[in-house]
TrEMBL record:
InterPro entries cross-referenced by the UniProt entry: bHLH_dom, HLH_DNA-bd_sf, PRE
Cited PANTHER family: TRANSCRIPTION FACTOR PRE, TRANSCRIPTION FACTOR PRE6
Domain of life: Eukaryota
One GO BP: regulation of growth
GO CC, any one term: nucleus
Protein name listed in UniProt: Transcription factor ILI6
Stretches assigned to the BHLH domain: 5-59
Key words, A-Z: Growth regulation, Nucleus, Transcription, Transcription regulation
Compartments, as annotated in UniProt: Nucleus
Molecular functions (GO terms): protein dimerization activity
Length: 92
């Protein structure tokens, strides 16, 4: 029982208030380009979180695409050249 009590005390100490959640959602809304355009429109928290996930996914796809393009560029250059060294440093 004491383990259960200590966990319950710990979780109540680290609880985030509704006001803090609203503030974090507002900050997220300001960071996401799709939502930044709707700055003064009311957007639900779930919409902000959904758009945030979509934005992160699109950034992952963009990183993967750029990494693939750099890999192809590296494969087409002389491996001992300065250009190849720069490309390798970007891939790391």
């Amino acid at each position: 029982m004491s383990g259960r009590r200590s966990r319950s005390k710990q979780s109540s100490v680290s609880r985030i208030t509704d006001e803090q959640i609203a503030d974090l959602v507002s900050k997220l809304q300001q960071l996401i380009p799709e939502l930044r355009r709707r700055r003064f429109d009311q957007v639900s928290s779930s919409k902000v979180l959904q758009e945030t996930c979509n934005y992160i996914r699109s950034l992952h796809r963009e990183v993967d695409d750029l990494s693939d393009r750099l890999s192809m560029l590296l494969a087409s250059t002389d491996s001992d050249s300065d250009q190849a060294a720069i490309i390798r440093s970007l891939l790391m």
